[in-house]
User: Which sequence fits this backbone?
């Protein structure tokens, strides 16, 4: 076997004889060793003689990369008017060289020029616009399928809905509870000093209650769920798209939206308000504990005050936002999943995008809610 | 001539939970040989391949590749050995974020000091060697058909001119013409580059046309090793079933006609 002789002293070499007609090729012309040889060939001063003979009888190894280098060098010399003959090749090297010569190698591909700044701005704007219309179309399609399902309730797939309730709702309880509890604790802690200065200790209940119930727990829960479940939706649907499972569903006659989007949407719309209520409780508990330890407001006083300070509407406005946030998270996650094209890279990109867009839209919706509630004076 | 076996598997036991996959398997692959592993689905062909490639750990046994014991090797120790392998996975496993030419060039860039133009040329040469059309170098794997993806995967596997090439189902899912193209290609590569090739396949045509020796795996054991002609004369019921099923017969008749 010619490859057995790959010892280190056999570096690839090329020597131009003094008669200016023969060129000796020596050593192992293999991919690991020809880096320096190529440099040497590029820098070589070729003799003026017309015909050149490449004597390869001292070659001890040759692989495709080496054979290519030999072929390329000979080809270049011939372009400059030196007919080249290659002699002394072992039969197996000769066969390899013939194989290389017989290959139809693609010409160098030139990359298309990068578009100029204006074109790129235009492309990016167009892309944003078209993805917005796509998103609207997706929401529309989902709405139509949702309406269909409500007219034919037997077609609703309960099993995936329950499964999603479990994974997006029940399994999120520990993290949502812990974070809201800590949030309540921190708000009470931050407010305690200020309130103490005015001797308004009891108002800690107003502060924690209002901020948690109206704003923080719906928002916090939505952000956690967007990170936990929205990303999972995008990654799941995206991977299914890469493995052609989505196409398989279509050919079996199941609408992917009906099987994949609707159960997630319904489950999240049910789960997120429940999670929000749970977050409310955990946050208040955190506030209560801090109120007692820093402000000496006992639990029953805190709860008493809470009843006076917080109207039912405050609580309901918080919970009412949750289904809207849920719809945003589920729709954005699923939509980004469907936008995946073919590659693993694209799954990662769309998953990131799903979380970023979902959180962005949730906060935007929250701001809109504040404005609307302000108009309605709730 | 070096006659020490390139791959030498001794008393290999592999188990997944309670499911015994390999029960005392021994086989050896000689230099320059095209060695095929066959057997029914789930008989542990691919597992054996993955074990040799250090992607999976067996329960016990010994695997020597180029005379070196590979079991228990760290990734770092295995690196020089891995440079001498080329692997083509069943579904291609091309990096989806890179074009075909970049997939091939990446291996060269990682392991050699060649300059960028030469890498690019060698990558295009490998792509041409596998019979891919000229414009496919600039395409992404997702834009290729199944057969072209296989060829691109093969181009990546031979990027470093490996001494040992592993092919997992090289012709599965290909049309007969492309499959025949792969047959010729495997043979030409072996003849031109002096490769040792180990392949896992179900394709009886490929076996008749290119394999020097074939091992039949079944029930956790090696049921028989030999040339196709030798195997086709063996009495073991599973081997007979394999070779004398309707497709087996057609392929062997074809092979006889060619001879």
Assistant:
């Amino acid at each position: 076997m010619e490859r057995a002789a790959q010892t280190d002293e056999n570096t690839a070499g090329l020597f131009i004889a003094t008669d200016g007609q023969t060129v000796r090729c020596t050593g192992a012309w293999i991919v690991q060793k020809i880096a320096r040889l190529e440099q040497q060939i590029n820098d070589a001063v070729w003799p003026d003689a017309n015909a050149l003979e490449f004597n390869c009888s001292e070659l001890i190894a040759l692989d495709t990369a080496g054979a290519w280098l030999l072929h390329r060098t000979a080809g270049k010399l011939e372009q400059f008017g030196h007919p080249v003959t290659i002699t002394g090749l072992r039969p197996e090297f000769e066969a390899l060289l013939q194989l290389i010569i017989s290959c139809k190698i693609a010409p160098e591909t030139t990359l298309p020029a990068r578009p100029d700044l204006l074109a790129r701005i235009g492309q990016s704007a167009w892309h944003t616009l078209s993805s917005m219309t796509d998103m609207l179309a997706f929401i529309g399609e989902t709405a139509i399928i949702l309406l269909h399902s409500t007219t034919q309730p037997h077609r609703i797939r309960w099993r995936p809905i329950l499964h999603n309730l479990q994974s997006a709702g029940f399994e999120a309880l520990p993290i949502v509870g812990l974070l809201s509890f800590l949030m309540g604790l921190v708000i009470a802690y931050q407010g305690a000093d200020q309130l103490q200065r005015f001797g308004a200790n009891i108002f800690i209940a107003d502060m924690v209650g209002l901020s948690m119930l109206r704003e923080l727990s719906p928002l916090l829960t939505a952000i956690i769920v967007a990170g936990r479940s929205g990303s999972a939706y995008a990654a799941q649907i995206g991977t299914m798209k890469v493995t052609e499972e989505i196409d398989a569903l279509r050919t079996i006659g199941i609408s992917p939206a009906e099987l994949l989007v609707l159960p997630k949407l319904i489950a999240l719309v049910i789960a997120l308000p429940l999670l929000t209520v749970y977050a409310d409780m955990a946050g208040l508990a955190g506030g209560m504990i801090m109120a007692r330890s820093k402000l000496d407001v006992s639990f029953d006083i805190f709860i008493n005050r809470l009843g006076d300070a917080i109207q039912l509407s405050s609580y309901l406005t918080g919970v009412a936002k949750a289904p809207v946030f849920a719809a945003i998270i589920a729709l954005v996650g699923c939509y980004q999943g469907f936008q995946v094209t073919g590659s693993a890279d694209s799954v990662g990109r769309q998953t990131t995008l799903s979380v970023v867009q979902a959180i962005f839209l949730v906060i935007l919706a929250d701001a809109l809610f504040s404005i609307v509630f302000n108009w309605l004076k709730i | 001539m070096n006659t020490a076996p390139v791959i030498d598997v001794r008393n290999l036991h592999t188990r997944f939970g309670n499911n015994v996959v390999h029960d005392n398997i021994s086989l050896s692959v000689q230099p320059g040989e095209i060695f095929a592993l066959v057997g029914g689905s789930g008989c542990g062909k691919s597992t054996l391949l993955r074990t040799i490639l250090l992607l999976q750990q067996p329960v016990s046994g010994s695997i020597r590749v180029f005379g070196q014991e590979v079991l228990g090797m760290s990734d770092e120790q295995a690196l020089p050995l891995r440079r001498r392998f080329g692997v083509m996975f069943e579904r291609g496993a091309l990096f989806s974020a890179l074009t075909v030419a970049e997939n091939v060039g990446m291996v060269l860039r990682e392991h050699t000091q060649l300059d960028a133009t030469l890498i690019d040329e060698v990558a295009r040469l490998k792509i041409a060697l596998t019979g891919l059309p000229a414009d496919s170098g600039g395409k992404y794997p997702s834009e290729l058909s199944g057969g072209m993806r296989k060829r691109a995967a093969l181009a990546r596997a031979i990027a470093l001119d490996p001494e040992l090439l592993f092919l997992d189902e090289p012709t599965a899912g290909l049309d007969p013409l492309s499959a025949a193209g792969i047959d010729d290609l495997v043979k030409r590569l072996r003849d031109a580059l002096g490769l040792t090739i180990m392949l896992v396949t179900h394709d009886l045509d490929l076996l008749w046309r290119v394999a020097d020796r074939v091992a039949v795996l079944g029930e956790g054991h090696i049921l028989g090793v030999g040339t196709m002609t030798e195997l086709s004369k063996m009495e073991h019921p599973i081997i007979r079933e394999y070779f004398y099923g309707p497709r087996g017969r057609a392929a062997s008749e074809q092979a006889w006609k060619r001879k």
